[in-house]
Amino acid sequence: KEFLVEISGTKVTITCPLTEGSIVWQLSGTKSDNTERKYVIENHDSSPVNVSCSSGSEKYEMYLNARVCANCEELDTLAVTGIITADLLITFGVLILVYYFSKDRKGIASTSAGSRPRGQKMQRPPPVPNPDYEPIRKGQREVYAGLESRGF
How far apart are CA 145 and CA 139, in angstroms? Predict the structure, then answer.
């Protein structure tokens, strides 16, 4: 025979396996005035406690280490399964949308610096000269007039 423990919020209900006689409850060595088969602990603080119930010569003991919280919500198996299934369906839907939208963009040529035009091979244009080393052209001598060579 075993104890039956029910937890709801911060309320812990313990049912003694004894069915006959007047039941004496003890929690961590202190006797309780409750003589019923069920013992209710209101506002349990999640601290471990030794619980025993006895009637006559029969005695049952239990170490209770129950974690309780005031703001917890209990979820049944169906709710957890529904949440996981909905999450997976939404994730797969987003993946399919991204796949179909990215599939249509494969044929569009990008205008990035590293892209080359497809088709026939074309000659590359000459490289752009560096403006710092650009040669002096006719008609632009007044720009460079102050750069005359000096005789040493």
Answer: 11
